[in-house]
Amino acid sequence: EPIQERFFRPHFLQAPGDLTVQEGKLCRMDCKASIVGLPTPDLSWQLNGRPIRPDSSHKMLVRENGVHSLIIEPVTARDAGIYTCIASNRAGENTFSLELVVAAKEVHKAPVFIEKLQNTGVTEGFPVRLECRISGEPSPQIFWKKENESLTYNTDRVSMHQDNYGYICLLIQGATKEDAGWYTVSAKNEAGIVSCTARLDVYTQWQQPPQTTKPKKVRPSASRYAALCDQGLDIKAAFQPEANPVHLTMQSGLVESDDL
Questions:
Q1: Where found, per UniProt (predicted)?
Q2: Which CATH number fits domain 12-103: 2.40.50.100, 3.90.700.10, 3.40.50.1440, 2.60.40.10?
Q3: How far apart are CA 220 and CA 52, in angstroms?
Q4: With 60 as the cut, is the pLDDT of residue 251 above it?
Q5: Rounded to a whole number, what is the distance in angstroms from the first to the last CA of the chain?
Q6: For a designed S-S bond to 108, which of 30, 60, 161, 191 qualifies (C-beta 3.0 to 4.6 A apart)?
Q7: How far apart are CA 107 and CA 113, in angstroms?
Q8: How crowded is residue 6: how many other Cβ atoms within 10 Å of its Cβ?
Q9: Counting Cβ atoms within 10 Å, is residue 247 exposed (0-12), middle (13-18) or buried (19+)?
């Protein structure tokens, strides 16, 4: 007695979930349908209810283990939507659906300094900030070095800071002579790396300058003798006694004339 051939509606043994893929990247959707019964089920794909045809960026592959793949490369914004895979044979069909979200293409810009580090001086014991501003896409990683030594973690006295606007700061509380030297800040992302170096000088506390007597100013005088004496010249050594005219000597008293 002939054996009656039986057919079974296909079902999926493996199916992917929703996907998010960045624009410009590769997207791969893998599924596996059962092959119980005859004929072997046919698979087709739809995007938002419209059949997908193979082309330069959409490929449909079948591996020996029965895994079917839809490969999209490169993914564009037009590829976003609801994908439906349909497995059908003579006994019927089965489907699964997933959503593909296409994320905007990431913009890569190498880091650049908007404001560079500046050479700085500080008095010993006072706080000091080494500051700069950096831009870049994606947001760059920041690295600090003093001379050839990397600064990898914050301490109570030395700390590294940055905000969402690109401002970078190295804060030193209570600067010491050991803090003086060359400091380098580097910014790195997928597009490149940039560095900037500046010097920090730490000065000793200012000493009070000693009090000094102001030099005497020689004022103009009608008396040449007074002017010379004020300059510290020895008048007696400069002129011989006989050189002084007798008539310049002032009399100590007044003489009254008999005729008056």
A1: Cytoplasm, Myofibril, Sarcomere, Z line
A2: 2.60.40.10
A3: 109
A4: no
A5: 190
A6: 191
A7: 18
A8: 9
A9: exposed
Q: Identify the bridge partners of residue 194 per DSSP, sorted by sequence position.
A: 187
Q: Is the dihedral of CA 173, 177, 178, 184 positive or negative?
A: positive
Q: Does position 121 have pLDDT exceeding 70, yes or no?
A: yes
Joined together, the tokens standing for residue 1 give 């007695």
Instruction: Kindly report whether the peptide bond that precedes residue 210 is cis, defined as omega within 30 degrees of 0.
Output: no
| Cα–Cα separations (whole angstroms), residue 239 to 45, 230, 232, 233 | 126, 16, 15, 11
pLDDT the model gives residue 248: 43
**Which of 77, 71, 44 is closest to 59 using CA atoms?**
71
Q: Where are the alpha helices (DSSP H) in the chain?
A: 224-230, 235-238
Backbone φ and ψ for 214, nearest 5 degrees, come out as -70, 135
Q: Give phi and psi for 190, each to the nearest 5.
A: -65, -20
CATH 2.60.40.10 fits 109-203, yes or no: yes
Enter the tokens of residue 236: 């007696």
